[in-house]
Amino acid sequence: MKLGVLFSGGKDSTFACWKAMQQEEVVCLITVISRNPESYMFHTPNIRLAALQAEAAGLPLVEVETAGEKEEELLDLKQALLAARERFGIEGVVTGAVLSVYQAARVQRVCRELDLWCFNPLWSPDQEAYMEELIDAGFRVIIVGVFSSPFDASWLGREIDRRTLDELREIARKYRITLTGEGGEFETFVVDAPIFSRRIAIEEASRDYRNYNGVLRIERAGLVAK
Amino acid sequence: MILVVDLCYRDGSLSRDEFVGPVERLLRKNGAPFTVRHYTAVGAPEVEAADAAFLSGTALKDTGFAGHPERFRWLLSFERPVLGISSGMRALAAAFGAGTEPCCEIGMTDVEVLAPDPLFAGEEGFPAYELHEYAVRVPDTFVSLAASDRCVQAIRHRSLPLYGLLFHPEARNEWIIERFLGLVETARHRP
Q1: Segments forming the whole domain that contains residue B112
Q2: Is the reported ipTM for this assembly greater than 0.85?
Q3: Disulfide-capable partner of A190 in A14, A113, A169, B24 (CB 3.0 to 4.6 Å)?
């Protein structure tokens, strides 16, 4: 089955893409760029670097911009899926939805309207096992956004390796947040993955942090040999 | 041993982690030993060895299982606890002769409890995650336990612990699966 992956460049959509590639034929990545920083559906820091990640994965990228108005962005998603079907013949869509019923249900509805299959290989997982598998499989993931206590500025740019995972585990237990950051506590960016033939090298980045809210903006990045 | 039947479009499919994975996670969490079989690979030894069964959901477009009613005939004489989830409810009802009717629900829906049952005891209603294109017509040998404003959401056999849920308890109502495991435990110790 030819599939398009809804791709944000974070760990969940990249991992979902890797899972999908093991079972079906992934023919493109699909990115919806929201101009609204409050968008529940699509906003994520560094979304413009999805093109570089797509290049690393050797997959074409279908990119659609949206103003990010609450229900209208679903029309933009629909346009993106239609474009992916027209250009690459997708028969289904893969998402990295983990726990968000809000996101999952909306994508399911759009897929139904377009008669597309919808796959959520990360849905309602054992979060501990997921994070372990992510590291074991060779994903290199950095934290590029923090949006809750106790994450201070030092978390921006940190790689989620075993040591960081131990700390996240402790924080998740103590502060009752999800280990995967699914509640929006932190956002991630994948610099290397089993599906990348080259890895991303961040050449320049800036931090914007205030009161447990911050993002690492990747200003310049390139692809280098692994 | 609990038998988890994977109803997805093929063995080891991309849908497996979405519809079978969460059930596996909850069984592990509750210390319930289980084995998973694709619906095309359920044979007499698995059925014989199982003291309960789960029938998984599937993707919205995935109706392949419905074209193989012969694969679910074992449910007619199983007599031990069964929990059919969404497509699993459809397969259970079909085994007992019931058809379907179009009723698409996607996302959270309010479910109202209609009849007393240990599965929902103490609950008048709850929000549940839905992902289905069809609802089932309730077989004569079953009773309706719960409904949304659109269709029947839960059924139980009149004399056997065979349950069907149209919504997905593994996504937002894990307590229902835990209660079902309690029923499995009770049935296991019954002489």
Answers
A1: 2-189
A2: yes
A3: A14
Task: Determine if the peptide bond prior to A150 is cis (ω within 30°).
Answer: yes
Chain-chain contact of A124 with B107 (C-beta, under 8 angstroms): no
Q: Which CATH class is domain A2-119?
A: alpha beta
Question: Mind giving me the DSSP string for A126-187?
Answer: -HHHHHHHHHHTT-EEEEEEE-STT--GGGTT-B--HHHHHHHHHHHHHHT--TT-TTTTEE
For chain B, what is the domain count?
1
Could you tell me which residues come within 8 angstroms of residue B186 by beta carbon, excluding any fewer than 6 positions away?
none
Question: Quick check: A70 pLDDT over 80?
Answer: no
How many other C-beta atoms lie within 10 A of the C-beta of residue A102? 12
Reading the block at residue A100, the tokens are 């968000």
Nearest residue, CB atoms, B60 vs list A19, A112, A121: A112
Domain-wise residue ranges, chain A: 2-119, 127-225
Q: Which of A84, A106, A95 is nearest to A40 (CA)?
A: A106
CA distance B85 to B18: 13
Contact call for B60 and A94, based on CB within 8 A: no
State the Cα–Cα distance between residues B139 and B169, nearest whole angstrom: 22
> What pLDDT band is residue B149 in, cutting at 50, 70 and 90?
very high
Residue A137 and residue A194 in contact, taking contact as beta carbons nearer than 8 Å: yes
So what CATH class is A127-225?
A: alpha beta
Query: What is the identity of the amino acid at A196?
Result: F
Helix, strand or coil, per DSSP, at residue B39: helix
For residues A156 and A214, the answer to whether their CB atoms sit within 8 Å is yes
Strand partners, B132: B105
Of B25, B62, B104, the CB nearest to A126: B25
Instruction: Identify the CATH number of the domain in which residue B67 sits.
Output: 3.40.50.880
Q: What would the pLDDT profile of B109-140 be if each residue is shown by its tens digit?
A: 999 999 999 999 999 999 999 999 999 999 99
Distances (CA, A) of A191 to A10, A138, A200, A206, A221: 9, 11, 5, 16, 10
Region of A46 on the Ramachandran plot (φ > 0 left; ψ -120 to 50 alpha; else beta): left
Does any CB of chain A come closer than 8 Å to the CB of residue B21?
Answer: yes
Asked whether the beta carbons of residue B22 and residue A94 sit closer than 8 angstroms, the reply is: no
